[in-house]
Amino acid sequence: MGLPNRETVSFPQTTASVLLDLIRGLAAILVLLSHWKILYFVDYPKIPSHRIFFAFPYVLAAAGHQAVLIFFVLSGYLIGGSIFRSVDRGAWSWKSYLTHRFVRLWVVLIPGLVLGGLLDWTGMHLRLTQTLYSVPSPKTHSLDIAHTLAPHIFWGNVAFLQTVLVPVFGSNGSLWSLANEFWYYLLFPLLWLALTRNSKTPVSLVRRIIYLCLFLALAWFLRSSLLNLFPVWLAGTLLARIPPPSFGPKIRATCALLYFVLLMLSTKVHALPGLEQDYVLGIVTFFFFWSILSARERAADSRFTHFSRNISRFSYTLYVVHMPALLFLTALFAGYNLWSPTDLRHHAMALVILAAVLLYAWIIATFTEFRTDRVRRWVENLLGADRPHQKSSSVAVQSKG
Asked: CB-based contacts of 56: which residues, under 8 Å, 6+ apart?
């Protein structure tokens, strides 16, 4: 169903941009909810009464891994799209591209690692919960935290080598996907520049061969750790190369409802092996985002728009800092105990802790993520880097990469 006389506006001002911001922010919250549930609440079969009332929240809190796959597809669309545009305009620069990527990642990651390490170290020295950090358990995703707070592991995480050469630093198990993201940011432009000819960005045969060799070398290096989810990320880059459909609001709403149902089912129905199921969800997410991109009308200046922008604005910080904070508060208030959601006092306490972690992430973001552009300009002036390619949308600015 087409939209006649639809106004042509730049992507950052479209409803699609607002919706992608919303999805990104909600995905980060889903990861937080997943870890929050694991740390504080009993498994669903152990709820003593009124179990049916908690069925949906428990399913929702099981979608942490699926939310990371959403990040991958969205990141492929945003980062891949920026690469396509800069190459097509003849404005491609490795210096500018890598400056963008490293500043964007490090401005949050390095403070997040330092703060997370301090929280883990402090939690390890709380008398009543020392073993919560030193004995692998389901509460800590079976991480041996006491042995991963080492300097070489810290620097390995700074270099995005977690799950490749070193484990994740401390309790911050979420950082596994950040290594995926970073290496995909290198793999894709190497492959694209090696295989694509563009008159505005001419690449000599020698350089194309070098790029292809570097791509193959990196792919071999990463083959057993994180290369298997690269196709999910690549699905997002395809979104940036195909035209969006002409769907109206009703069709988009129907697609969103169907996608949400399939997303929730994927948390409980495992008809395929894990990687194959991830690929299927990646394909479904691709088509869902494709339907979202049909919303090319100008976004209204509404509370919904402001809410979407704001929860996306600090989503990367939330992703990086939430786990050490959650675990530290667990050590203070819950210890080894798991609570029933029917226990109103403990349920209220868990909700206060959830709100506290969100506030903590927002405060950290005010000193890190919200200052990304300022730091990037400073680094560019310091390095004499080329001017950054034009931003495509507000959500592009807030991509994890």
From this structure: none
Chunk the chain into consecutive blocks of 10 residues (it has 401) and report each block's average pLDDT, rounded to whole numbers.
54 93 97 95 91 94 96 97 94 94 97 96 78 68 81 97 95 95 97 90 92 97 94 97 94 96 92 90 97 94 95 97 94 88 94 97 97 94 64 43 45
CA distance 169 to 291: 38
Per this entry, what is the length of the chain?
401
368 touches 111 (CB < 8 A): yes
Rounded CA gap, 308 and 203, in Å? 40
DSSP letter assigned to residue 41:
B
What is the per-residue DSSP string for 326-352? HHHHHHHHTTT--B-TT-HHHHHHHHH
Residue reference for tokens 């504080």:
40
Q: Where are the domains of the chain?
A: 11-122+197-207+228-397
Does residue 371 contact residue 151 with C-beta atoms inside 8 Å?
no
pTM of the model: 0.91
Q: Which of 38, 76, 53 is nearest to 233 (CA)?
A: 76
Q: Other CB atoms closer than 10 Å to residue 303's CB: what's the count?
A: 8
Which residues, in sequence order, are bridge partners of residue 225? Answer: none
